[in-house]
Amino acid sequence: MSRLPDSVLDDCLLDPAAPFAQDPARDFGLQRTTAQLALAELRAWLNDQQRRLWANGQDALLLVLQGPDCAGKDGVIRRVLNSIDPQGLRLHSFKQPDAGERRHDFLWRYRRRLPDPGLLGVFNRSYYEGLASDLFDGLIGATELPARLQRVLALEAGLPAQRLHPLKCYLQISRDEQKARLLQRLQRPDKRWKLRASDLLAYRSYEVRQQHWSELLAASHSQSAPWYVLPAEHRWLRDWLLASLLAREFERLHLEWPDRPPPFTLDDLQGAD
Q1: 230-233-235-238 Cα dihedral, nearest 10 degrees
Q2: Alpha carbon 30 to chain centroid distance?
Q3: Residue whose C-alpha is closest to residue 42's, from 79, 95, 88
Q4: How is domain 6-271 classified at the CATH fold level?
Q5: Contact in structure between 50 and 59 (CB atoms under 8 Å)
Q6: Mean pLDDT per 10-residue run, the chain (273 residues)?
Q7: Which residues share a beta bridge with 230?
Q8: pTM score, two decimals?
C-alpha cells in the first residue's frame, strides 16, 4: 500500500490562522507517473478495507468534499473511488435545496443520508452549503449564520458516539485555474453540459466566496473533525492526496475480518446431502 507519508498529509491540515495561505499548485516535489502507479495500488487496498468495514458493521466513514466550482469534486470521486464495491458506498451530491427540502430544518436532508455502520459515505458538497451557498443564493441572511454554525458543530460533535468518522476535505484552486477550467468546459461538449449560469456568478465573486469559506473552515476545524485543504490544481496529486487521507482513516480503524463462529459446520453441510 503506497499512500503518501504523514508529513505530506499533515502539511494539508488546515491552519485556522491562514486557511488558504498555501499554494494550490504546489506538488511537494512529487511526480505524476509515480502518483498514477501509487493510486492504482491504493484503490485496490481501499476496496479491501471498505469490505472489512462492511463485514464488521460497526464503524462508518464520511468523506466530505467541498471546494469552488471546477475544483474537481466529481473527478476525485471517479478516480479514487471507482474500485470500491458500490454495495458498501453511499454517494450523495447536494445541490440547492428544492421547495420540499426547504420546508424542513436545513440539516434534515444531510442527517437522513449519513452512512450507516459498515458504509463509506461521500457527501459531494455537504451541510456546509447551508452556511455558504444558502447565503450566496439568498436563501438565508447573514444574521442566521451563527446559529446554523452551532448546529453544524453540534452535529459533528455527536458523530464519534455513532462511530461515524468524518474526513473533511476542501479542494483548493486559484481564480486563474478556475477560469481555465471554465474555459475548457465551454470548449468541450463532454464538459459543457455541466455549466450553469451560477458558475459565472461564482467566478465573478471568487474572492468574496473564498474569504467566507476561509472564515467558515477556521470556525469549524476541530480535533475530532479537522479540515484538510488539498492543493487541487494538479489533478494527479489531488487524487493521490485524497486516497492517502482516506487510507490513513482506514488504518486508524485497524480493521480485521470478523472472527465470528459460522452458523453451521462442515458436518452440517455434508449431512444436508
Answers
A1: -10
A2: 23
A3: 79
A4: Rossmann fold (3.40.50)
A5: no
A6: 93 98 97 96 96 97 97 96 94 94 96 98 98 96 98 97 97 97 91 87 94 98 97 98 98 95 85 73
A7: 171
A8: 0.95
